[in-house]
Amino acid sequence: MLSPTRVRACVPNTHVGLAEIIKIMPDEGEVLSFYWSWDERICPASDIDGAVASIKHVVTPPLHSAF
To answer: In 1-67, where do the E strands start and end?
Structure first.
């Protein structure tokens, strides 16, 4: 496993502390993959666009959020 990385959302007019820890490690088939802090697989490490979309979806609050 490579060192976990904190992904921080930078969304204007929202809570500045929104963040998630992302890990990269081999999955059960030895494919290098991105994982959430709760050890759920996001996608293969080769799918950068998919990883960015998933991470952005999780760390970005809804437009009308109280954050």
So the answer is: 5-8, 19-26, 32-35, 41-44
